[in-house]
Request: fold
Amino acid sequence: MNRAGLLANDGKIVIATLIEHFASVSRRISVSAHVDGEIGLIVPVSSLTSIPAQKPALTPLGHPTLHKLSQTERNEWYAQIIAAEVLLAAKEALSIAVGTPGARIVAVDGRGVSLLAARVSSQRLSGADWSRGAWSILSTIDPQLRCDARGRTLALHTIDLRRDPEFGPLIRQ
Reply:
């Protein structure tokens, strides 16, 4: 590892080191760019089908049982998982690329379609309140979080980032 290159935020060294790291830990995260000194990451996330249809509960007598999750609850859990994946990727990358001021991260589904985009600065990440939920943390770190949660159940829909000035370069690469 070239510590001096990482501290100096040398783009070639940062990208090569992160590619090597994510490959060594079997994470499918793509390091796609080094735009304006920030790391560009494409993070594949699990699908909504990974969320269970039931949740643990107790009967009135205190016996364990299972209750069906509403679609709203499943969507909320899914959003939390996506936010957690993005935060984990940011923490991992920025702990290695110590001279980098931040990361631009796009979460993509199994088809490679964008679901969420966030800018995570090293400074805001280090000052995050980790006692809160992942979605709350991520939306505090990036108040301009890009996503499309709509409808009564707040289902996440795909977003088109190709023309976005901050995230378009990541998608096009």
Observations:
- Residues 107 and 170 are 11 Å apart (CA to CA).
- The chain has a mean pLDDT of 91.
- Helices lie at 3-7, 11-24, 71-96, 122-126, 134-141, 168-172.
- The first strand starts at residue 30 and ends at 35.
